[in-house]
Amino acid sequence: MFDLIERPEIPDHLRQQRPDEAVLFFDADRLEATARRFRAGFPGLVTYAVKANPAPVVLDTLVRAGLRAFDVASPAEMAAVRAADPQAVLHYHNPVRSRGEVAQAAAHGITSASVDDPGELDKLAPLAGIEVSVRLALPVKGAAYDFGSKFGVGEAEAAELLRLVARAGFSPAITFHPGTQCEDAAAWEAYIHASARVARAAGVTLERLNVGGGFPSHRNGLSPDLEAIFSRIGRATRTAFGQAAPALVCEPGRAMVADAFAIAARVKAVRRDGTVFLNDGVYGGLSELREIGPTDRLRVLRDGAEVSGPLRPRVLLGPTCDSVDRLPGETPLPDTIAEGDYLLFSGMGAYSLATGTRFNGYGLGDPVAVRGL
Ligand SMILES: *Cc1c(COP(=O)(O)O)cnc(C)c1O
Same CATH fold, 28-256 and 10-25+258-369? Predict the structure, then answer.
């Protein structure tokens, strides 16, 4: 539906509409281009981790860009993907599931599941014959924050579990997640070599190796070199496994969607002490900034034009009546910032709409289609 309407650029939209609620902007062309970049560059199957942004426009756009496989964590995510593409391949890589969820997964026809515990493997009995990936966790660094503390087992336990997976008649695989916004390809290399050791110790030939998500988005002035990470993943797999190299799968969330979205938050008030109140904050679209730190991709717009001038560090507060609703640190903004200006945060597609709330009546509405992001 988005190609049927005339999509404005963001400064024009803000100048004409003067929205008084925070706006989430979406550029479908940008998302399609990123999906193509992954499909062209990654040496294996590209799946999308739905949790990063489950908006129907995202799933529809990815299907249009040729994505056919999705990483889902719950029955609701399975249904969301099925609505976008009834034929899509579903990988259910949340390693802990209720028996009721397993039954729903079977009804949705999932083809892969991950485990990090023998008890979880027992629960998968109704899914006989599918692929089961053992979730490996290593103490490796390189990501903005670590996913290994909740899921995954070390090498020895992983080998034991992989043997059980093969013995139970599932197609054996290994999966891991190096941590989100991972800027160092060495993290994937360490995991790939560990996966080869686990497979050898178990005496099991892996059908596939799923290298997870964690691919970085644009941050701190750096555009990530995804292709360099892709080629190091391919090379490490050949080196570690040799002739018996498994087929590769990846499941990017953040890197797929982040740059296809921006959030415009309006200045509600500038206090005498210089503090700036916005109409979005940590309970809404800016929730992730608390975890991942302040963004450097921020512009100030007034009447459709960029406000420049000397910068001054400001404390930014969100709109709710809760003192936790405050962005981390201080953000340098033009000295002349004033009520009614818009702060445009770029790269906000991941973990914004997905995790934001409507606390106190604030938060993001449906995405607004634009071009030129
Ligand atoms: C969250 C998650 C992803 C996506 O992670 P990103 O860092 O957003 O790329 C992929 N796979 C699994 C199993 C996850 O839990």
Answer: no
Among 177, 183, 250, which is best to mutate for testing ligand 1, by the most ligand atoms less than 8 A from CB?
177
- Around ligand 1, the residues with Cβ closer than 6 Å are 49, 51-52, 71, 93, 177, 180, 212-215, 251-255, 350
Per-residue pLDDT tens over the stretch 260-285: 999 999 999 999 999 999 999 999 99
Cα 344 from Cα 79, distance rounded (Å) = 33
- Cα(37) to ligand 1 centroid in Å equals 18
Tens digit of each residue's pLDDT (9 = 90 or more) over 130-145: 999 999 999 877 666 5
Q: Domain 10-25+258-369, CATH 3.40.190.10 — does that match?
A: no
The CA distance from 171 to 165, in Å, is: 7
Are 263 and 345 in contact by the 8 Å Cβ rule? The answer is yes
Separation of CA 253 and ligand 1 centre (Å): 6
Query: If you measure from the C-alpha of residue 71 to the centroid of ligand 1, how many angstroms do you get, rounded to a whole number?
Result: 8
How far is residue 112's CA from residue 109's CA, in Å, rounded to a whole number? Answer: 9
- Interval between CA 142 and ligand 1 midpoint (Å): 15
Q: Which two tokens stand for residue 38?
A: 């992954």
**Contact assessment for residue 268 and residue 319, using Cβ atoms and an 8 Å cutoff:** yes
The residues, any chain, with a CB within 8 Å of residue 221's CB and separated by 6 or more, are 296
Axis crossing angle, helix 75-84 with helix 99-108, rounded to the nearest 10 = 10
**What single letter denotes the amino acid at residue 83?**
A
Domain residue ranges in the chain: 10-25+258-369, 28-256
Report the pLDDT value the prediction gives residue 1, as an integer from 0 to 100: 45
Q: Which residue's CA lies nearest to atom 10 of ligand 1?
A: 213
Q: Taking the CA atoms of 267, 270, 271 and 276 in sequence, report the sign of the dihedral they define.
A: positive
3 C-alpha to center of ligand 1: Å?
29
pLDDT digits (tens, 9 = 90+) for 23-62: 999 999 999 999 999 999 999 999 999 999 999 999 999 9
CATH architecture of 28-256: Alpha-Beta Barrel (3.20)
